[in-house]
Amino acid sequence: MNKKKFVIALLVWFVGLPLSIAVSYILRIIGDYNSLGMPEVVWFIMHISLYILSIILAYFSLQKLSFAKKLTSMVMISFVYAVYYFGLTWLYIIESGIDSV
Length: 101
Fold this sequence. Notes:
With 101 residues, the chain is an all-alpha fold. The protein has one domain (3-95). 78% of the residues lie in helices and 0% in strands. The protein is built from 3 helices and no strands. It has helices at residues 3-30, 40-61, 67-95.
């Protein structure tokens, strides 16, 4: 396992996602009343791209592991990413007043 590549893969997701949400928030704040910030298509494509890039980097950092360990690692990473994604986006949506629960 290449630890440096693995850390870079995690940083792509755990830093890239908040940065993309910050860009959306800034676009929403500087826009007018009818402005909705970042278009939904751009929002989802950006997050999907970050996920794919991070997963590819994580996969290549795990090259020396067996297939079973690699598969288990990828599933666990994806689960952690999903929890982080839903938690962070939910917090952004509620705190910014876009929607309420």
